[in-house]
Design brief:
2 domains, 4 helices, alpha+beta
Length: 123
């Protein structure tokens, strides 16, 4: 595989065509999550109320990193979405894989693995 020494800007439609990415109208996992019913225990309820009160005062001033640290991380913790070898929450991790002889590299905050192999690159 030829290594590209610079980032090449692409239109999203070109990337989708190149890597065979298709829009999914249905997602069974998301549908299952949306149908789930759960009642918070007292600790979770208190945390959610605190997050709500804090966000009302500060959310307009948070940048992306502050939002992740101040709110989203706690929501993921309460939701307990991590699933062994399938769903993993993390922040600003570099992921890369080879698709059709192209190296695809991204920086992301969470992964949901279904049918792809991903290499985690440690900084």
């Amino acid at each position: 595989m030829e290594e590209v020494s610079q980032l090449v800007p692409f239109e999203l439609s070109v990337i989708a065509e190149l890597f065979g990415i298709e829009k999914q109208e249905e997602c069974s996992t998301l549908a299952e999550w949306m149908q789930a019913q759960y009642t918070f225990n007292e600790l979770e309820n208190n945390l959610m109320n605190e997050l709500y009160e804090r966000s009302k005062a500060d959310i307009d001033y948070w940048n992306e990193e502050e939002l992740k640290v101040q709110m989203i991380g706690l929501l993921f913790f309460i939701a307990n979405v991590n699933t062994d070898r399938k769903i993993k929450v993390f922040y600003e991790r570099r992921l890369s894989t080879e698709i059709n002889e192209y190296l695809l590299s991204v920086i992301c905050d969470c992964k949901y693995l279904d049918k792809i192999n991903v290499t985690i690159v440690k900084d």
